[in-house]
Amino acid sequence: MAIPVLPAHPGARRGRPAGTAPAVCYALIALNTAVFLLGPAAGLNPLYGRGQSRVCAEQRYEQRWGAVPAELLTGRPLTAGQLAEAPDPVPGCPAAPTPGKHPALSVLSALFLHAGWLHLLGNLLFLHVFGPTVERRLGRSRFLLFYLASGALATYGFALAEAHSADSTRVLIGASGAISAALGAYLRFHPRARVTTLVPLLLFLPLRFPAWLVLGLWFALQWWSVHSAGPGVAYLVHVIGFAAGFLYACTLTERRPRATRPRDGAADARYPGGTSQRSTPP
Q1: Closest by Cα among 237, 193, 247, 200 to 215
Q2: How far is CA 212 from CA 91, 190, 197, in A?
Q3: Which of 67, 171, 214, 244 could form a disulfide bond with 110, CB atoms 3.0-4.6 angstroms apart?
């Protein structure tokens, strides 16, 4: 699949100012990075040890702060016995209960957890590319609410869909539900924006395509992966988030006379990371 690259903002190349700084996007990028670096997944914090000790600490950390569908639907954290019966546990790491965990709040804390460097960087690149334009369109406060609410909605939607499957006890982490919503909103606001992409089949030759084609193909790939991919990435979260963002943006779009409606300008993007669906050992 083509890989979008090089961020830009619609209208900027026609001499118009890009607007106020996207402070919320920058703050979200900084917070996600800080949480990752301080947590066990980065492997940089000596408090979590090394080797197997760090791996077990990462499992406990994700169980404590990640979103578990079964917990969201019952409103109660899983017991150690239930966690031990989750699919694909990490060998040698005993399951531990998570007393004091509030499942309803875990849908928000899970948005700031990532399973590894590629998971983190992929998500943050997408937020950096598409987020600022959507933030300027919505305003800072509304964008932050949109980001958090979309992420929570996508997580709860996934929980309902997997209520009676083995995936109901897997830990769900990552910001992709919220970021996918930003992609959906961007597509609605700027469907004709030009996206510069690198095409692997053409030796990564940079080509320009409209946003509706690039993001439309991305959404189709996520939808196809829901039914064909194995465990590891919760593609349904991407689908729900994208659809929620697009539909919300539809409620905000005002139709203007053709003579006064501004054209979409050039826009570039990077390919996103995915929401990681980690087994209670994206």
Answers
A1: 193
A2: 44, 8, 13
A3: 67
Burial 142-168 (b: 16+ CB within 10 A, else e): ebbebbebbbbbbbbbbbebbeeeebb
SS3 state at 126: helix
- pLDDT above 90 for 211: no
Whether 59 contacts 77, CB under 8 Å:
no
Q: How confident is the model at residue 226 (pLDDT cuts 50, 70, 90)?
A: confident
Q: Is 237 helix (H, G, I), strand (E, B) or coil?
A: helix
The maximal CA–CA distance of the chain, rounded, in angstroms, is 67
Residues whose CB is less than 8 angstroms from the CB of residue 141 and which lie 6 or more positions away in sequence, other chains included: none
pLDDT (tens digit per residue) in 47-60:
998 888 899 999 88
Most confidently modeled range among 10-14, 88-92, 256-260: 88-92
Are the C-beta atoms of 93 and 59 separated by less than 8 Å? Answer: yes
* Token reading at 75: 């409103």
82 contacts 43 by C-beta, under 8 angstroms: no
Please give, one letter per residue, the 3-state secondary structure of 157-189.
Answer: HHHHHCCCCHHHHCEEECCHHHHHHHHHHHHHH
- The CB-side HSE value for 231 (13 A sphere, CA atoms) comes to 18
One-letter amino acid identity for 46? P
Q: What is the pLDDT of residue 204?
A: 54
Spatial separation of the C-alpha atoms in residues 182 and 113, rounded to whole Å: 18
CA separation, residue 169 to residues 15, 99, 124, 235 (Å)? 52, 17, 27, 16
